[in-house]
Amino acid sequence: MTTLRSRRRIPAAALTIALAAALAMPAGAALATGAVPARPALAVAESSPTGFASVNALGQNGTTGGLGGPVVTVTNGTDLAYYAGRNTPYIIMVSGRIQISGMITVVANKSVLGVGSTAEITGGGLQLGSTTRPGNNVIIRNIRFTGASDDSISVTNKAHHVWIDHNDLSDGYDGLLDIKRESDYVTVSWNRFHDHSKTALLGHSDTYTADIGKLRVTYHHNFFDGTDQRHPRVRFAEPVHVYNNYYRGNALYGVASTMNAGVLVEGNYFRDVAHPIYVGYDKSGPGRVVERNNIYDNSGTPQTAGTVVEPRTYYSYPLDPAANVPAIVEAGAGVGRI
């Protein structure tokens, strides 16, 4: 078994995000700080992120999105783009199906939240930040993304403190959820990915070495449901924490660590995945992987190599037994669950 090396602890944030009213949750449904949601029913989802989006770093104490800003409801792409691009905090409620083309830029201090179980963005996607306007402190929850002409969600251009939670992503042109170009402190949780190939890229390219020392991302309780590859595919990043995800029928591979990335894969359930973990992939050089407490059900043998920084030096987290992950994730991932 390969081992993990530790590093200086960075305190985790302990913020409760007061979005219960905006999400139309019942009175008193928001969890207290530090609470863990009931499993597997998940009647109430987390009100603040676990993982890297919770960490106090880069001048941002956790991820609060548009907290404190006005709550607005949008039903068309024009209004969505307008409020997403404003320079002040907003809680943007997406109601119904919104058809867009291209990418809408979401700038700092925004929450983009779906209403009920029918919120959908189709034809295009959301890009967090531009080269001149950062996409820091952004929350995207409870939205179905379909048929994007590029990425469904792109976290890019040094965006940090991002929480992407309880979405449903499918049938895009390029990546469903790409995180790249020096972005940092991101949590991807409780999403369902399906009907797609290139699922979740982490790291721009083999030559984009500016990503070294960045791209700290947590993936937990996601359902990679028949998607082919990139769950995630990682370059340069360390540590990347992949825990309690459910992988089912992924044709090419589960996780790939390349270009000296450091990835911890723990407590996941792999079902019918011939290549659950790769060290190196295609033309990219090898990364490092530590695996522990995973279940490989009718799946191949994982590749591992080297040591990886321990995520617990950044934050604490609850870990579900891998045997329980399929039931927990199927019950809780996707839209209409918060």
Write the layout of secondary structure elements.
Layout: E1 4-5, E2 56-57, E3 60-61, E4 71-74, H1 77-84, E5 90-94, E6 97-106, E7 110-114, E8 120-128, E9 138-141, E10 144-146, E11 153-155, E12 160-165, E13 168-170, E14 177-179, E15 184-189, E16 192-194, E17 201-202, E18 217-220, E19 223-225, E20 233-235, E21 240-243, E22 246-248, E23 255-258, E24 262-266, E25 269-271, E26 277-279, E27 288-292, E28 295-297, E29 308-309, H2 325-332
Parallel strand pairs: 1-29, 4-5, 5-7, 6-8, 7-9, 8-10, 8-11, 9-12, 10-13, 11-14, 12-15, 13-16, 15-18, 16-19, 17-20, 18-21, 19-22, 20-23, 21-24, 22-25, 23-26, 24-27, 25-28
Antiparallel strand pairs: 2-3
Question: How would you summarize what this structure contains?
Answer:
This is Pectate lyase. Helix content is 5%, strand content 34%.
CATH fourth-tier homologous superfamily? Single-stranded right-handed beta-helix, Pectin lyase-like
| Annotated CATH topology | Pectate Lyase C-like
CATH architecture: 3 Solenoid
Uncertain parts = 1-43
Fraction in helix: under 10%
Tally of DSSP β-strands: 29
Strand content: 25-35%
| pLDDT averaged residue by residue | 90
Question: How does the helix and strand content classify structurally?
Answer: mainly beta
CATH class: Mainly Beta
| Major sheet details | 11 strands, parallel
Distance between the termini: 38 Å
Global geometry: globular
Tally of distinct domains: 1
Radius of gyration using CA atoms only? 18 Å
Number of helices: 2
Family: Belongs to the polysaccharide lyase 1 family.
Main location: secreted
Protein name: Pectate lyase
Pfam family, one: Pectate_lyase_4
